[in-house]
Design a protein that fits this description.
The protein has 8 helices and 14 strands. The protein is an alpha/beta fold and about 270 residues long. The protein has a single domain (about 5-265), classed as Nitrilase/N-carbamoyl-D-aminoacid amidohydrolase. The protein has a 6-stranded mixed sheet with strand order 5-4-3-2-1-14. Strands 6-7-8-9-12-13 form a 6-stranded mixed sheet. Strand 1, helix 1 (about 15-35) and strand 2 form a beta-alpha-beta unit.
Length: about 270
């Protein structure tokens, strides 16, 4: 079964959630018209990602979450969006997923906050995975900087996830790392990875899109350019299962051995 997943590579209307969501609507309509089951937006799309900003911090009843829910219901397509979620002692950088009926089915708060930009001084890290099923297919969520940390992707692979969705604000300066990590995470964990990046210049940095998807062999199967765009990727869960069966990397891992090696190193 081929499932279509859309990625909306858009620049935000800076710190203006209402206008950003208005800008998003034609992309949601287009993705639904083209038969996509889900559309994913970049990291903190309604406001733009800013590691130092706590403007528009909202709870689940706020404008941003409510509007994503309404749009999912109106166009009959699942939506993955993100927002600055009210949390104590500091807000969280949170993704939220709505099904076609506008019902929340998953959320995930960014675990690896971007310390080079002091995101950790303003935001609280998450500590739980975000897993949901869409038409029976298991999906997982990671956010931007999480791509650099294989361990969290291993958690999702062990949970049987077939496709990782990674909304991001990945800067143009390090765009080569972006593709490298997406392909590597897909290859080493033998699932699809779809990264949806922002584009354009804003007060934080310069971005160049290049949203892309890699299959379980690490091959790029969809790629956007530098401008605003909608990419649609076809994923096939059976490809994941066949790949893992033919090349059983996860079964050949030796976690007990690794732990003994760590213990031996620490005792030496």
């Amino acid at each position: 079964m081929i499932m279509k997943i859309a990625g909306a590579q858009l620049g935000s209307m800076w710190e203006n959630p209402l206008q950003s969501l208005k800008k998003a609507e034609p992309y949601i309509r287009k993705a639904a018209d083209q038969g996509a089951s889900l559309i994913c937006f970049p990291e903190q799309y309604p406001t733009g990602w800013d590691p130092g900003s706590v403007q528009h911090v909202q709870d689940r009843e706020g404008l941003i979450v409510s509007r994503f829910s309404d749009l999912a219901r109106e166009y009959g397509i699942a939506i993955l969006g993100s927002f600055r979620e009210r949390f104590q002692p500091k807000p969280r950088n949170t993704c939220i997923v709505f099904n076609r009926d506008g019902e929340e089915v998953a959320s995930y708060s960014k675990c690896h906050l971007f310390t080079p930009a002091d995101e950790d001084s303003v935001y609280s890290p998450g500590d739980k995975p975000g897993i949901f099923r869409l038409d029976g297919v298991p999906f997982g969520i990671a956010i931007c900087y999480d791509l650099r940390f294989s361990g969290i992707f291993n958690v999702y692979a062990e949970a049987g996830v077939c496709c990782m969705l990674v909304p991001a604000a990945w800067p143009a300066l390090r765009i080569g790392h972006w593709e490298l990590f997406i392909r590597t995470r897909a290859l080493e964990h033998q699932f699809y990875v779809i990264g949806v990046n922002t584009t354009g210049v804003n007060p934080v940095d310069a971005y160049c899109g290049t949203s892309l998807a890699a299959d379980p062999s690490g091959a790029v199967i969809a790629r956007a350019g530098l401008e605003e765009d909608l990419i649609i990727t076809g994923i096939d869960p059976d490809t994941v299962y066949r790949t893992r069966e033919a090349f059983p990397v996860s079964r050949d891992r030796k976690p007990d051995l690794y732990n003994r090696m760590r213990a031996g190193r620490e005792g030496s």
